[in-house]
User: Fold this.
Amino acid sequence: MRRRLAPAALLLPLALLLTACGGNASAGTDTDGKGSLTLNVGDQKGGSEAILRAAGELDNLDYKIKWSTFSSGPPLLEAVNAKAVDIGGVGNTPPVFAAGAASKITVVAAWHGTSKGDAVLVPNDSKLTDPAQLKGKSIAVAQGSSANYQLVASLKKAGLGLADVKVKYLQPADALAAFTSGKVDAWAVWDPYTSQILQAKQGRVLPTGDGVTNGLTFQVAAPGALKDKKKAEAIKDYLERLRRAYKWVYSHEPEWAKVWAKETGLPEDVALAAVKRTYTTRVAVAVDRQLIASEQEIADTFTSLKLIPRKVDFGNFVDTRFNGELPASTSASRPSED
Assistant:
């Protein structure tokens, strides 16, 4: 008989594994390969390394990979800026904040998917039934995260602004604790946290980011690594492997969910729900003018809110050399399974 875990026990593993570390990274495993070149890759728990390994895309490498695991996008990009990481994956908003801080970062690859995993959650017993009712309420969100913009966009759609709510800038683990203990009225967050709360029946969705945010995720590289011919070749190969790995998920949802559950400590049903909601809609797209314009809108929004100290020209922070034959960022559709 399957034991029914208490809500607190169900929530604990992910809170511990994904707790924000204020810019610190934990050393991950090293991936052996041929040659003397080492590509330093920034990752998040259950992220690129896990999906590449599950899809068999870490075999027959002509270079080695040294993995460093970060709790979220902003500290990962701090490491890219500091040249401690050559490349790493983040959501749609961390590069905007990094650009606003004049960090040395370059977006080199993108994926487009649904934003249904990005949501503003409220407790099951909350009286809130419409986003417009968030006025005057306290909302937890990680500053500089994709959820930060999703909150801004969702409030705008409801006719509200950040000044109309009480924003509590909390990293995920602290926000989770505040949400489940009733210390905040709502929580703006992303998958797998969204799936975790819903599967544990600890909350429900008010709005999602679907239709209000661009659904983009990125691989971001250090300019110095891109100037190094051998590292640039390794980055090209790495991106091709990562694109194949994401495509592999489309026809292997249960297999990927099991790996993700093991990597993060999530229950398998939570992992599978998050995979279906978020991963299987993610398609590799070109870093193009439409993408730049979409990110520019995010940058301009945060500049107007004075959360970014200066005007950002997002086009100065991209490199299109790895686009290949990818579809445009605004016209991507799920590819056929093969």
